[in-house]
Design a protein that fits this description.
about 190 residues; alpha/beta; Rossmann fold; 8-stranded mixed β-sheet; two-stranded antiparallel ribbon; 4 helices; about 25% helix
């Protein structure tokens, strides 16, 4: 399946999910995520779910990691739409967030953290394939960012749907996930 076609299909499928269906799926993904054996994580790059896009509730997964390791530093991306890049910014409990371009909540303040310092990244996606390649929103922010991360940085996705067989038009710069959590399964790549 081509990225453009999959992006359209899975965006529509996700938008058709009711709030109750998404909430149940989020809970099932949290249960699945809790079963994953993870190494010690010092820095996590999460993201604020865009409600208008019916994204999975990443706050649940972030809070689970914070509960498991109260010392973990939670970072959120700040996007630069001129260069199509993002920067991880460490946040605290009192960090203010502002809704910015494309309905993305970003921290208004915080310490920048280099990509090489991040231990795990929650990567937004619309769909993914059986090899761990994902389909995002098409701007390339995360693939550029992930290219600068350490080899042992875990890349995790959360998806309401099972994988497609194959993304036919992968690019050489596409970075695959290490794992993807769905309501039914944990896929490890």
């Amino acid at each position: 399946m081509q990225k453009k076609e999959a992006r359209k299909i899975y965006r529509e499928r996700r938008m058709k999910l009711s709030e109750a269906e998404r909430s149940k799926s989020d809970d099932l993904m949290l249960i699945a995520f809790q079963s994953v054996e993870l190494p010690f994580l010092e820095y996590l790059l999460s993201y604020w779910p865009i409600e208008e896009n019916n994204e999975p509730n990443t706050h649940l997964f972030t809070e689970f990691l914070k509960f498991r390791n109260p010392e973990i530093k939670i970072c959120y991306p700040v996007s630069d739409f001129k260069t199509l890049t993002l920067q991880a910014v460490a946040t605290g409990i009192d960090t203010p967030f502002e809704k910015r371009k494309l309905d993305i909540y970003e921290p208004e303040e915080g310490e920048p953290v280099p990509a090489a310092g991040i231990d795990m990244v929650f990567v937004p996606l619309l769909a993914f394939d059986r090899d761990g390649y994902r389909i995002g929103y098409g701007k390339g922010f995360y693939d550029k960012y992930l290219a600068g991360c350490r080899d042992d940085c875990l890349k995790a996705g959360f998806c309401y749907f099972d994988p497609i067989d194959l993304i036919d038009d992968r690019h050489e710069f596409d970075v695959p996930l290490d794992l993807c959590i769905t309501p039914q399964n944990v896929y490890v790549f």
